[in-house]
Design brief:
single chain, alpha/beta, Rossmann fold, Alpha-Beta Plaits, six-stranded mixed beta sheet, 38% helix, 25% strand, globular
Length: 673
Amino acid sequence: MGLGIDTGGTYTDAAAVNTATGEVVATGKSPTTRHDLAEGIIAAVRQIPPEVLARIGLVSLSTTLATNSIVEGEGAPICLLLIGHDRELFRSYDLHRWLPTANLTFVPGGHNGVGAECEPLDEEEVRRVAREEGGRVSAFAVSGYFGVRNADHELRARRILEEETGLPVTCGHELATELDSVLRAATCALNASLVPLLRDLMESLGRALGELGVRAPAMVVRGDGSLMRMEMALERPVETILSGPAASVVGAQALAKLSDMLVIDIGGTTTDLATVRDGMPRLNRRGASVGRWRTLVRAVQTVSSGLGGDSQVTLDEGSRLRVGPQRAVPVAYAAWAYPSVLDVLREGLDRVSRLEPRDLVMYLLARPPKGLELSAVEERILEAVQTGPQPLWRLATRDPWVHFYLSNRNRLETSGVLARCAFTPTDALHLRGLFQEWNVEGSELAARQLSWYTQTDADEVVERVQVLVRHAMVRAMAGMLANGSEEPMAEPDGRLMELALNRNGSALEVQLHSHLPIVGLGAPAAHFVLPAAQAINGAPVLPPHHAVANAVGAICGSVVIRETLGVQPVYHSAGLDSYVVTGPFASVPHNDREAAIRDAQRRARSLALQAAERAGAAEIEVSVEVVNDEATPGPGYGDRLYLGSTVTATAVGRPRFASELPEPEVEAEEALW
């Protein structure tokens, strides 16, 4: 029995799955507690019967922690060492802009394209950096020029940094095999900044599982949907970016049992789309991008929009309704949790003609402000919301500075202390009678407030919100489908797209038709995804347990490890001289091409097998692929010119369960928590 857990931006889901049959045995859902993820995990998992939890032999987690930390710029402070990189080249081409840290040092050393040393590593410079930065940072990142062709300098620098500081050190060659030295350095730096955060996550998960009495090895979903042990995730946390969307794709495959589909997962905060063809999710060929940073991390190709069930409905300057991307607590929930909210809404409706739409937004205390040194304005705001949600107009009457503070990006909201409350698509569902978990009257009062500005009625507000959500989803689906195997179109707008959504009296009718079935995931999928699928003439599929598909996907994945080595020809003035095998070791010379390729195959297979075992795999199968790179030279230089070979070993296995681990190994895993 396996337990999948997904900590999303709004909800934490749990699913107990019989991994032998694929049957979902029990599920749970609870709001995500951003200040302490353990609280939300415990609340979700406790909804699973104790007799089921007693049979859990494996736990797997998908999380937005790494993605959110990168987007919000909340990674730990690090120092990046660039070995063998050209300082002047960085300055001339402003390459610093691609790096997520300004704290970097250029260290003499590095290798060339065939793994030969260009300059000895300056070990004294590495020691100097360790002494100066060791007390100011939480981790180090080391990325060498052509480090993927010879990792010797990176490994030596890591040993020195670890000996001098005891801090975690990330090496670039461990994360990517591509030759893009700048993006590899960026990936390495991001990884180092996430190590302390993943350690906190591990501790939170360990506390939660310990309190629940679950004694099983823990794994984490990677961005490509595969799994790795928590211990490995600590070393390469950057590979967990986009693990939430990846888990949803794996969950869709497990629940819908289709080999070709468009997956659309609508949550409280975002909507994520991905495609599956021939049983394989489309991967991002260039590496995943998160926020403003590009990486070399393999991840599922997704399109994500700031549209969810809890997206705030606002008004633009023309009093037209807009949905998202800002998240808000639904008014229905606030009125259910705080009965005083109904009086606040009624008073706001009486004052609506004298207020701006922004003034009607309410604020509530989401968590205690631990660790924050509050300003006077922040203290007054938090004092006012102690008794329950308060609208901006009421907060501003106490202090005019409050209006300015809350009308802009502010620390109380970004840190999760304060949450805004406003009309959302979830409120629209309450008024349509499609989902009435909380207080319908609260939703109605909020809709009436908006209707005053739109000069319509509450029903028209609800209808317009539903249309906006449907149209946004259709645009996103069209963009995902339009480019086939290429990257999705960001904005498939234009006149034809608008005609497909609404003819508006035009003599031309445009229809969209999806050749892929559209699989809806997430709690609101039945109400939002299905209408959008019908608008695009796609076959809608709503699989069982779609509301917790991410948690199901978290436990249904496999361990997949890829190790890529190179065989490089060494040319001199007289022609081809020899061959070298390059990888995370000192380059290995060979006189014969076939012997070099065989050696690379053997080494790649061994590395992949070892890594898969360390990632927690059992019943491992390894396949090796060799791709030769040749070119056609000019006249007189022969038929083909050999440029090298890429040797990739792929190890695939299922995750090991607690019953397959010796007792000391289980205890060692728990000690990590």
